[in-house]
């Protein structure tokens, strides 16, 4: 299972998505006998890399926000 493909977050995987869609457009039997498996593996790999980038970016942002909140609470406690 994969997320919606054509979103702003998945721009880096556009070529891989198009390759998978072209493979699927060849017909049911092409998919059924596993001819699209490599394209699917490439897509899953690309989406995973994008998700890991996003997660690390978000993790860093959260840590910065937590540090700012701790600093504000520290200032409040010192001024109380």
TrEMBL record:
Signal peptide: none annotated. The keyword Membrane applies. Its main location: mitochondrion. It is found in: Mitochondrion inner membrane. One of its GO terms (cellular component) is mitochondrial inner membrane. It holds the Pfam family Cmc1. The keyword Flavoprotein does not apply. Keywords: Chaperone, Disulfide bond, Membrane, Mitochondrion, Mitochondrion inner membrane. It comes from the Eukaryota. Required for mitochondrial cytochrome c oxidase (COX) assembly and respiration. Belongs to the CMC family. This is COX assembly mitochondrial protein. It comes from Lasiosphaeria hispida.
């Amino acid at each position: 299972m994969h997320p919606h493909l054509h979103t702003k977050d998945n721009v880096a995987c556009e070529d891989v998505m198009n390759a998978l869609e072209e493979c699927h457009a060849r017909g049911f039997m092409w998919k059924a006998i596993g001819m699209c498996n490599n394209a699917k593996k490439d897509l899953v790999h690309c989406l995973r890399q994008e998700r890991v980038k996003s997660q690390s970016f978000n993790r860093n942002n959260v840590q910065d926000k937590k540090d700012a909140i701790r600093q504000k609470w520290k200032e409040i406690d010192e001024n109380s």
